[in-house]
Amino acid sequence: MNIPNHVAIILDGNGRWAKAKGMPRSYGHMKGCANLESICDDVKELGIKYLTVYAFSTENWKRSREEVEGLMKLFRSYLKRCLKIAERNRMRVRIIGNISAFDQDIQDSIHVLEDYSSQYDELYFQIALNYGSRDELVRGIRKLAADISDGKIAPSDIGEETLEGYLDTAGVPDPDLLIRTSGEMRLSNFLLWQMAYTEMYFTDVAWPDFHKKELVEAIEVYNGRDRRYGGIKEEASCSRQD
Ligand code: IPE
Ligand code: IPE
Ligand code: MG
To answer: Which residue from 1, 17, 89, 183 has the least number of CB within 10 angstroms?
Structure first.
């Protein structure tokens, strides 16, 4: 099996999963959070080098105060727990998104986790928190514009790699495979620039039920894809007999 270098996942369906069980949405988030821990172990075992997950979008603040507060509580405990997960999997953790919107203690936990895990390089784990692709591009372009006005870079020197360097994902290769759980077939403002050539896999399985078996199935489907990047496959170009 050809293992993708970078897998991105939109962790969706916690609320519906809980509702189907007659439970509150917060129960779904709790189970979803526990599943995030086990998927890191699975990803490590499979030999995937980069994992990026979408856990809270710039649009998710629109949810009820109760739900947002519940999610913040969950992030608080998860960010602390993640120190152990990082140690166990020798993984480096990076938060992408605008973290300045979070309470100071959450920002502090993020810095502790990023600093602590910076010693590891066997798995690179990006968690998107208060992340929106359009917001990331605006923030990146603002920094780039400031560097232009400071004379650090000339407009004519700007290329694709320059812009990539100003994004939250600077240094992280583009995802090879995107998985979205729970049936929706949209990107919801996730990694719009980075996923220009990413293979997409949508499943009806809700995030709390998405385990190693489901991940392997997604990779098998990915293996059957014919990736071309705009070119043509060598066999196709050689097969003409005329
Ligand atoms: C994903 O599950 C988790 C977050 C967006 C925080 P949802 O909360 O979106 O669950 P559904 O899609 O409403 O079922
Ligand atoms: C996308 O899920 C964001 C995350 C999984 C964090 P949503 O449930 O918020 O997306 P929409 O609203 O269905 O597009
Ligand atoms: Mg959702």
So the answer is: 1
**Token representation of residue 112:** 């502790």
DSSP characters over 151-203: TSS-GGG--HHHHHHTSTTTTSPPPSEEEE-TT--S-TTSSTTTTTT-EEEE-
pLDDT tens, residue by residue, 22-42: 999 999 999 999 999 999 999
Query: How far is it, in rounded angstroms, from Cα 166 to Cα 214?
Result: 34
Distance 220 CA to ligand 3 centre (A): 25
- What type of residue is 47? G
Put simply, whether the predicted model's pTM sits higher than 0.70 gets the answer: yes
**Residue 135 bears catalytic tag:** no
pLDDT in tens, 198-214: 999 999 999 999 999 99
Multiple choice CATH, 6-132+174-241, 3.10.129.10, 3.40.1180.10, 3.40.50.720, 2.60.40.1930: 3.40.1180.10
